[in-house]
Each structure stands twice: as C-alpha cells, then as structure tokens.
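ASSEMBLY PREDICTION REQUEST
Request ID: AP-0331
Submitted by: J.K., bench scientist
Number of chains: two
Total residues: 229
Priority: normal
Notes: Please return the full assembly, not individual chains.
Input sequences:
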Amino acid sequence: AQKVTQAQTEISVVEKEDVTLDCVYETRDTTYYLFWYKQPPSGELVFLIRRNSFDEQNEISGRYSWNFQKSTSSFNFTITASQVVDSAVYFCALKGYSSASKIIFGSGTRLSIRP
Amino acid sequence: SAVISQKPSRDICQRGTSLTIQCQVDSQVTMMFWYRQQPGQSLTLIATANQGSEATYESGFVIDKFPISRPNLTFSTLTVSNMSPEDSSIYLCSVGGTGITEAFFGQGTRLTVV
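STATUS: Completed
Returned structure:
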C-alpha cells in the first residue's frame, strides 16, 4: 500500500526564519514520483516540484530546496528566509510510475509566517 | 505541461440540487481525475475518467452521487447530485496519461451547500 505522512500539522515561524516541512512515504514500487504542492487560501493547488525515485539529487530553486533521501523514504522541503507570502498549506504527494497510477496525498502542513 | 481550466470557480447551492463542474484541458489527455477536498482535509480521489469508457470510482464514491462524463480527450464534467451541506468542498480535476508526469490541477471549484 502507498502512504504519505506529513507529521507536522501546523508550523508557525517568524518571517526570515528557515523552516523545514517533513514528508515520509511508503511504497512497494521501485520507481515512483514524489511531489510538493502549495495551496494558498484561494484554494488552487500550485505545483512546486516533481522528483523521480531514481534521481536522488537534491534540488534548489531560489529560497526553496528539497532533500530526497531514499534510504529513509523522506522528501523534505525547506524554505530559506521565509516570507509572509509563503503562508499556505503544503502537500507532499506520491505517484506510481504507471500513467494509470493515482496520486496519494499527505494530510498537509499549514505554514504560517508571522511578520 | 497541460493547462487545465475549471468552471465554475465557486458556487453556493441549495441542498437537494445538483451542480455540474466542467474541466477543460488545452491538449488531448488519456486520463482525467476528479478529487474532493473537504474543509481542512487533504485531497481524496473520487474517480478516474477515460474517454470512451465508464469512469472508475474509488471506494466510498458512487456514480449516482457523482456522475461523470468524458465526451472527448480534452473535456470532462463532474456532477454533484442531490447536494447536502456535507458536500461542501473544493473539487479539483487533474490529468494523466502517457508522457504526462507532472500532476497539474485545475484551479478548483469551491462549493458551498446551504
């Protein structure tokens, strides 16, 4: 069975602090995709990143970085120098390699950045 | 990446009525997915819609309550039937298929049932 766990329900930090959102997944597939999405109060789901299971290189995009550790089945997301606009709910998700596979979402982490 | 448009973006409906949500994609796709997100919750897959065949529903969702149409490779509709306040949610569509590895979503339909 596939499962995504985001143990942090809510996180609140002061602006400019760094913050890491944790994601742990379970799957029996040998190849799969991992995703992070941002959902602002408007409700839309904004795609942030996709990672293939065979590519364990960490990725950095501006203030965002992702740490993929296959050995611990984790795909953590760090925001450096957080800003108020980063306030949102963030979802980690898992999808099998097959095009017919559905996306399994974690429960989400609500991030609040205080000015 | 596919551009996905949903209509309406939001609606307030009376209980007992039905609402049809449209999802339009700017390219042909094999699969379209419909998700529900209840307030404060994560996303749950309702069904998968393939063109030319009956939609495949996930456990807990039935065709009578959530009928789906998929008339062509760029369009699908989800109807929420005989609505009750418990149906108040955000409904989102997504696409999949060969060569589509990004999981993009429409902007969602925020439904409130009163």
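REVIEWER COMMENTS: The two ends of chain A are 41 Å apart (CA to CA).
SIGN-OFF: pending second reviewer
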